[in-house]
């Protein structure tokens, strides 16, 4: 079928709306009619070239939810009419990583940026007869997607799909980075650096876990104010401003967990985060940087003698098949804010405006909402 899609044709170029050809599901795949797609900073990395791709054009988008419209041979997890969230990391359930309980680093994730479908290593999206790379093998900047069942999480139908879409990346990643990998618990001090679509959920995750102090750091005043609504006890424009106060409120112990969720991370951000973290504490690195950037500044003396830990995190450290349903239960009970996360909605044609707003710090999460005109 022919569908419109937001594609980038070369690194650094703007998103363009094109008509692409979307293939039908083959064995192990499903087609989904999307309700909405989040505008995540990771797709900006795709556009700029900071995230490596084998070729362009690329179809962006990796945070979406919708209704299954077609099912390929051999699919047993879902059927037509089911409501699903798309997880940006597949979870096959069979590979060694999944078998160890590490679905968030499923071996099928090795092909996320190749554009080659898991089922047969071909391409489901083409433009003028040439293959298109689907971001995270999803490509939610199009009202329809054809994806592997490993990327599809069935949900109950009482959750609004435009809210459920947020679970595909930002909410699960932020929440889990504070609570699962970060291990935030009652009485802890948690510092979150970068209050965007991921960081704001680290804030509410830490608050939900019972942290005594949740310190949110972001240069944008709007985001600092929003952080208070999601559970932050203290906010600062910079880590330099925050450090003395963190020391004061913790009687010199500093933070138990520091989560770095900035939109674009650089190596010189690690040491200040380490300094904000106390003995035996942990720095969780969630933000993405340029793929070629390998320089990090940190005190090895401090790392060793104060037994601090530096930990990477993807999808919050928890498998999507367990995390997404659990967080939706939190939403039902009122313990998780989803409606309040979306600052502004956009049409697909306004995607460049949406990303301009994100870069300007105007949104916690911008979202493309599809209408009947898009199908």
In short:
By secondary structure, this protein is an alpha/beta fold. Helix content is about 25%, strand content about 25%.
Percentage of residues in DSSP E strands: 25-35%
Sheet with the most strands? 7 strands, mixed
- Round the Cα radius of gyration to an integer and report it: 20 Å
Low-confidence stretches: none
Give the overall pLDDT as a whole number. 95
Q: How would you describe the shape? A: globular
How many DSSP E strands?
Answer: 19
State the distance separating the first and last CA atoms: 11 Å
* Class of secondary structure makeup: alpha/beta
Order of helices and strands: EEEHEEEHEEEEEHHEHEHEHEHEHEHEHE
Number of helical segments? 11
- Helix percentage: 10-25%
Descriptive notes:
With 375 residues, this protein is of the alpha/beta class. Helix content is 24%, strand content 26%. Helix 11 links the parallel strand 18 (342-346) and strand 19. It is globular, with a radius of gyration of 20 Å. It starts with a strand and ends in a 6-residue tail after the last strand. The model has no long low-confidence stretch (mean pLDDT 95).
């Amino acid at each position: 079928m022919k569908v419109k899609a937001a594609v980038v044709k070369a690194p650094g170029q703007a998103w363009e709306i094109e008509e692409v050809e979307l293939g039908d599901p083959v064995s192990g795949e499903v087609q989904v009619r999307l309700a909405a797609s989040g505008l995540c900073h990771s797709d900006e990395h795709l556009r700029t070239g900071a995230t490596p791709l084998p070729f362009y054009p690329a179809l962006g988008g990796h945070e979406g939810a919708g209704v299954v419209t077609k099912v390929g041979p051999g699919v047993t997890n879902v059927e037509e009419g089911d409501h699903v969230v798309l997880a940006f990391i597949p979870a096959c359930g069979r590979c060694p990583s999944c078998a160890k309980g590490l679905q968030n680093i499923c071996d099928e994730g090795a092909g996320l940026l190749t554009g080659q479908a898991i089922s047969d290593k071909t391409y489901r999206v083409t433009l003028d007869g040439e293959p298109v790379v689907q971001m995270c093998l999803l490509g939610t900047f199009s009202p329809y997607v054809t994806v592997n069942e490993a990327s599809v999480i069935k949900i109950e139908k009482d959750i609004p799909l435009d809210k459920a879409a947020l679970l595909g990346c930002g909410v699960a990643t932020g929440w889990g980075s504070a609570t699962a990998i970060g291990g935030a618990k009652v009485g802890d001090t948690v510092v979150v650096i970068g209050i965007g679509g991921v960081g704001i959920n680290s804030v509410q995750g830490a608050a939900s876990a019972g942290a005594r102090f949740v310190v949110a750091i972001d240069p944008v005043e709007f985001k600092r104010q929003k952080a208070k609504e999601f559970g932050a006890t203290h906010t600062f424009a910079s880590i330099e401003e925050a450090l003395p106060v963190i020391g004061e409120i913790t009687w010199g112990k500093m933070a138990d967990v520091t989560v770095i969720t900035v939109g674009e991370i650089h190596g010189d951000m690690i040491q200040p985060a380490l300094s904000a973290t106390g003995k035996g504490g942990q720095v969780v690195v969630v933000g993405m940087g340029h793929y070629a950037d390998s320089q990090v500044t940190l005190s090895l003396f401090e790392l060793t003698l104060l037994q601090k830990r530096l930990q990477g995190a993807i999808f919050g450290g928890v498998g999507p098949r367990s995390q997404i349903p659990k967080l939706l239960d939190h939403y039902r009970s009122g313990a998780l804010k989803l409606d309040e996360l979306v600052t502004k909605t956009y049409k697909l044609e306004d995607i460049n405006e949406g990303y301009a707003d994100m870069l300007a710090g105007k949104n916690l999460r911008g979202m493309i909402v599809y209408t009947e005109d898009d199908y």
